[in-house]
Known about the structure:
This protein has 348 residues and is an alpha/beta fold. It contains eleven helices and 14 strands. It has helices at residues 3-27, 53-63, 92-95, 97-105, 117-124, 195-205, 248-256, 275-285, 298-304, 310-313, 331-346; strands spanning 40-44, 69-73, 84-85, 110-113, 133-137, 149-155, 183-187, 215-222, 226-227, 237-242, 260-266, 293-297, 318-321, 323-329. The strands form two sheets. A nine-stranded mixed beta sheet has the order 3-4-2-5-1-6-7-8-14, with helices on both faces. The radius of gyration is 21 Å and the shape is globular.
Amino acid sequence: MDKLKLLLWPFAALYGGVTSLRNTAYTKGWFASRKFNLPVIAVGNLTVGGTGKTPHVEYLLRLLHNYRVATLSRGYKRNTKGFVLADEKATAATIGDEPFLYHADFKEVQVAVSEKRVEGVEQLLQLKPRPEVIVLDDAMQHRAIQPSLNLLVTDYNRLFYKDHMLPAGLLREPKYGARRADAVIVSKCPATIQTSEMNSITSRVQTYTRKGTPVFFTGFRYGQPVPIGNTGQLSKHIVLLTGIANAEPLKQYLKEHHFKLLHHASFPDHYSYRSSDMVYLKEELKKHPKDTIVLTTRKDAVKLMDASLQNYSLQLPLFYIPVEVYFQCGGDNFNELILQHVKSYTGR
């Protein structure tokens, strides 16, 4: 442990103690935790920052396409309050960037946001037609609601059992919070990961989970860049634009596939783009070969195409790169776990 972490250790111990007390209060029933009579699948993590939850939520939405599915998120950094159900007027500003991404790409899914998840589920159950399955995004620490299935995502590059409590590390709660998980997903694994390493990680993870909790390993599969601007042809010369927690896996992919990264315009996670950012990109492109394109993520793309920015973004050679989750092994077992769980409630 370096000197800074050592100095922060007393604060981390205090924070860990407080969160442990809170968890104990819910576990013992001192604080109320609501359970609902339908499958409520939570996707969460133990750390702050991006572990790849969003692509895993999207994986579930595709897997559950034969059911009436709703998603419920907090709606981080939105400019609204309370329960909001996405409709044709929804934007990333009104419901948050990740919920807006679900709304844009999964038209058949009912997408809602609410700071209070219990109230959010209650509102969703009033809808006609009523959802058959609810997927909770980033709800591991929201103990006021008791999911029927808890999926814990941990980043291969930052495994939770190697981390420390805030502020010495990035853990939101102690490692034994993993006991609440019904399955653990190790995300962002390299394609070259060996069975021996997966076995070793599984053993370490299961030190903190309930006995027999399955551990799955996933990676990201990037697709062919998709144009969203009105100008430019696909090129290997790129200016990368990201407003995500960790762009390193994407940068590594681009390097491996011989893209020439000329500049990386990196913004904080959940960043709200402004017209000045578009002007900055336009000026940046002038410094590079004429065939240079702006490449971004799907999550960023839906914000860049907001009506307030389209006058700028449509003038840029703007592309986004799709990303999907794939399982290194055991994908059929994961699918069966999810589908059988839902069937136990719905009967189909």
